[in-house]
Amino acid sequence: MPLLCRMGRGLGYAVWFFMPGRRRIVARNLRIVIDPTLRGKELGKLVRENIVRTCMNFIGAAKTAVLTDRELNRYVSLIHPEIFEQSVVSGGTGIACIPHAGNWEILARIRPLFRQTERFGSMYRRMSNPLLEQLVYKSRTAYGCQMFSKESGLRSTLKFAREGSLIGVLSDQFTQEGSFLPYFGKITGTTYLPALLYKRCRGTLYAIYTRNTSIGHWEAVMDTVIDVPENAGIQEITLRINEVLAECQKNSILDGFWMHDRWKTLLAFAPPQIDDVRELLQNYPLQPFRILVSMPEAFEEAILVLPLLRGLLDSRPDTQINVICPSEQAAYWQSQPEAAHTFTTDNPATPLAQQLDADDIYNEGVFDLAFLLDNSPRTLKELRHIRPITLSAFENHPCSEKHRFRGKVPVKRGGKPVHRVEDYMEFLEHHEITRRKAEYFAPSPSEPLAANAPSLFIAPFSTLGPASEWTDDAWAELIGQLSSTPSLLALPRDSERATQLAEHLGIPLTLAEPHEYGAHLNNSCTLIACDGLIPGLAAQKGARCIVLMGTRLPDRYRPLGTQHAYINRHTLCHPCYRTHCDQPTPCMHRITVRQVLDKL
Question: Mean pLDDT across the chain, nearest whole number?
C-alpha cells in the first residue's frame, strides 16, 4: 500500500503540472473552504499538495477494495466505531453523512468490523461507464455492504433503514435537484437525502470522514453525532449536516476532494426552492455569490440594464452585483445601491484585470458568474485570470463560439417590437428565474428637492447626436407658450452650448452629471426632452417625461411607465438610428409645438 500511494503522489505531481485548469478549480475551492484571501505562493503550495494527496487517496481507495482483513487493520484505524454502531445495538438506525475526503472507499470496506450490525448499506450514484460501474459495485458488496443507487428510488432504501441498520450517504455531492444551502458558508446544491432518511426513520445522524495520517495510512473518524433541533424541517436538518461536515473536514482540509467544481454555477443558478430557505438564511453569514455585469458602451443603453440587476439581486439572498463599465458611467453605477463595486474598462493606468485583483476586491471571495452585455472580446480577455467563472451573453457575442458560454441568450429578430429593456430581462428567463416584480422597473429613490427648485425642465440636447435634436426656434416658440418658466437641463459635456441656448431663451440653466439627477428631479417634476440619455435618467427618478423621438423606434426606447408620453413623426427612413440626418426635412423638424403642448 505505501508503495502504491507513493506512485499515486507521483501521478498527482504530473496532474498538477500538466492540468492548469484543475489547478484553477482547486485554487477556487480552497479559497472558499479555507480563506478567500489566500493567493500567490501560499495558495499555490496548498493547491499542489491537495492535488497530490487526492491522487494518492484515489490509488489507495482502489487498493482498499481488495485488502484482506489483516491488511485493512494495518492501514486503517477506526476512531470510536462503537459510537456509530450504538444506534443499531439499541434498535435504531444510524445514518452516516460522509464527505468526499481522504480514502472514503474505506467506509464500504469496513462492514466485517461491525459484528453486531446485521444490515450495513450505502447510497451511491451510478457511473456512466457500465464496466466501471459493475467493478465498483462488486468490490463494495463483496464484504456485505448493500448498495442502493439514487437512480432506483428511495422505497427500498427507506425499508432497509426502518428495519434498523447502518447506512451511509455521500452527503457533500453537488445536486441541482437538492436544496440550495450553505456549505462552508457558500450556497450550493446539496442533497437532502440524509435529512429525509432521518425524518422518515427517526434514527441518529453521524458525520463520518477519513483523513490521511501518513503515506498509505488513514483514520476513519466515527464519533461525531449531529444534533438536530426538535421539530426541525428538511431544510434546517440539511443545513445542520452541512455545518457539521464542514467542521469535520476542516480537521484535514487538504484531504478533501477539491478537484471538481463543487460550487459550480449552472444555467439555473437560482432555482425556485431557494425561496423556502430565505427565512432560515436570514442573518446567516454567507460568502457572496459574486456576479460581474459588463455594461453596454452606450450610456443610454446601459441604464436599461437596471431592472435586470434588481431581478438578479432578488433571485437569491447571497447575490452581489459588480459592474464593469466605461469611465463615463462609473459615477452613475457607484451611486446605484444595486452595485456593490464598479470597475472601468478604459483606464490605461489600472487595467480591468488589475482592478479585479486589488486586495479589497479579491478578499471578498471568488467570482461566480459574468454577464457580458458589452459584447467586447477585450472584456472577456481581462477576465481570464479569475477563471473558472460561468459566462452568459447574447448569442451574437463575437466570442460565443470560441469560448464555452453557459448562457447564450437568443437575439429577437422580427415580430412585434418590444421594449429594449425586455431584451436584458430575457437573461432572467434564460437562466430559469421566473419571478418578475413591478419593483424591478420602479423609479429609484430620489433626494428631497429644495423649496424653490424648478419643477418643469426642457432638455434640448441629445446624446444620440444632432439627428435626434429639435431646432432652437422650436424650443423658443414652445417656451413662449408655457404657463411657467422651465429650466434647461443638460449634461456638463454640453455646458457651452447649453449656456448659450439658455441665455438665448432667457431661462435658467441646470447642469448635472448622470448620478446627480436625483437631486434635481422627482415625481413632482415634468421634463420635455429630446430622445437620449437624459429622459431615461429622469424617468428613473420618477419625473414625467414628454420625449421627442426621431431616429429610434418608440416601442423599443420610450421611457418605461404609463405617466410618460412620446411624440414622433413617422417617415420612410424611420427608424434610422443615425447621429446625423441627410434628409431635406429631418423627422425631428416635423414635430410641432402644438403636439408638445397637447401632451402637457
Answer: 89
Which class is domain 285-441? alpha beta
Residue 174's CB is within 10 A of a number of other CB atoms, namely 16
With CA atoms as reference, report the closest residue to 366 among 380, 387, 383.
387
What span, in angstroms and rounded, lies between the C-alpha atoms of 341 and 567? 38
Give per-residue pLDDT as tens, 468-501: 999 999 999 999 999 899 999 999 999 999 999 9
Integer CA distances (angstroms), 251 to 49, 106, 159, 247, 255, in order: 16, 18, 34, 7, 9
The three-state secondary structure class of 88 is: helix
Q: Would you say how long the chain is, in residues?
A: 600
Domain layout of the chain by residue ranges: 2-64, 76-255, 285-441, 456-599
Supply the pLDDT for residue 115: 64
Task: Specify the DSSP element, H or E, that contains 546.
Answer: strand 544-548
Pairing state of beta strands 179-183 and 186-190? antiparallel
Contact predicate 203/92, CB 8 Å = yes
Residue for cell digits 487526492? Answer: 54
What pLDDT is recorded for position 111? 63
How far lies 474's CA from each of 65, 511, 590, 594, 598, in Å? 88, 21, 10, 10, 15
365 vs 434, residue with greater confidence: 365
Strands 217-225 and 76-79: parallel
Q: What does the pLDDT read at residue 134?
A: 74
What separation in angstroms does the CA of 71 have from each of 66, 230, 303, 348? 10, 43, 67, 63
Q: How confident is the model at residue 193 (pLDDT cuts 50, 70, 90)?
A: confident
Packing angle between helix 420-430 and helix 306-315, nearest 10 degrees? 20
**In 339-454, alpha helices (H):** 352-356, 359-362, 377-382, 420-430
User: Do residues 176 and 103 touch, judged by C-beta distance below 8 A?
Assistant: no
CA distance 351 to 569: 45
285-441 matches 456-599 in fold: yes
Cβ-proximal residues to 528 (8 Å cutoff; 6+ apart), any chain: 456, 457, 458, 459, 478, 486, 546, 548, 596, 600
Radius of gyration of the chain (CA): 31
- The answer as to CATH 3.40.50.2020 being correct for domain 456-599 is no
Beta bridge partners of 220: 78, 210
- 551: Cβ contacts below 8 Å, ≥ 6 apart: 464, 465, 467, 468, 531, 574, 575, 576, 577, 578, 579, 581, 587
475 touches 548 (CB < 8 A): no
The one-character DSSP state at 256 is B
State the distance between the two ends of the chain, measured CA to CA, in whole angstroms: 87
- Let me know: does 234 contact 199? Beta carbons within 8 Å: yes
pLDDT beyond 70 at 132 = no
Look at strands 390-394 and 319-325 and give their pairing: unpaired
